[in-house]
Amino acid sequence: MLRRSLALMAILILSSTSRADFAVTYFLGENNFDIYSYELIKMSLEKTRGKYGDFTLTAVDNIPNKRRFAILQQHTFPNLVVMRGYQTKFHTKGGLTYINFPVDFGLLGWRICFVSPQSKAKIEAIESLEELRRYSIVQGIDWTDNIILRENGFRVIELEGYQNLFKVVASGRADLFCRGINELPGELAAFKEIGNLMYNESFVLTYKMPFFYYLNSKDILAKQRIEEGLKLAYEDGSIMRLWHERFDANIQFANLQHRQIFNLTNHAIETAPKGYEKYLIDPATIKLP
Question: Are residues 101 and 227 in the same domain?
């Protein structure tokens, strides 16, 4: 289902390239949140069509996170938009800018975890964050929350290959592989052919990790247009309708009311401008239809 959705997204992207003038480039993703992010960029451009004119939204092949920012700095593609969680280093590198609007409304900072078969029962029984720190967490290379998890005392194993991470936890080579509550349900279905792919139902990790759109600082007009479009879509309710359509079922699946909530600190986010905070949503208290 997920692969069909990604294929459909590619077709939709290509179909939007006719009759277009303003070129925007975006990396093809790997999960349902990437599809949502594409829809959000397209919505922002549609909302500003009257002011700025037609547009081309073109996808390029997905590549690892670290290489994305190298390409962004090199200005390889016109108006390239890269979605990424806030890290201080992105704002000390020259040539980058970002839109201070949390694409995920804070949802990716709520993490539920795939768990190894060997550790599942023991982890279900833990009662404190101190106990949880005894278990290893596998993550992708250079992921935003690698720093957050280590800062909070966790042993993090960084490995390459998105699909490989599911195999690592299912085979017991790591105890946990934590995902946003909007990601795990779709991934559980997409990778069901991997034997012993299980998830924990007893706790959720939460920390401030807003995801923003980054652009090359030369792409001033693209930043201005997308930012204006996002705010227009927020004001008229379009974004929240899309957000609920995409993620309400995921929030219900997470069953947060019956999980221990472990709050982690993220000191890096303290350096970010505070304008994003008014958009954050607490999925543990939000009322769903």
Answer: yes
Domain check: are 68 and 87 in the same one? yes
**For position 192, which CATH number holds?**
3.40.190.10
Tens digit of pLDDT for each residue in 197-236?
Answer: 999 999 999 999 999 999 999 999 999 999 999 999 999 9
Chain mean position to CA 119: 26
How many distinct helices (H) and strands (E) make up the chain? Answer: 12, 12
State the CB neighbour count (10 A cutoff) for residue 149: 22
Are 217 and 100 in a shared domain?
yes
The rounded distance, in Å, linking the Cα atoms of 202 and 260 is 6
List, for residues 58-72, the tens digit of each pLDDT value: 998 887 777 888 899
Round to whole Å and give the CA distance between 47 and 84: 23
Do 13 and 95 lie in one domain? The reply is: yes
Q: Which amino acid is at 288?
A: L
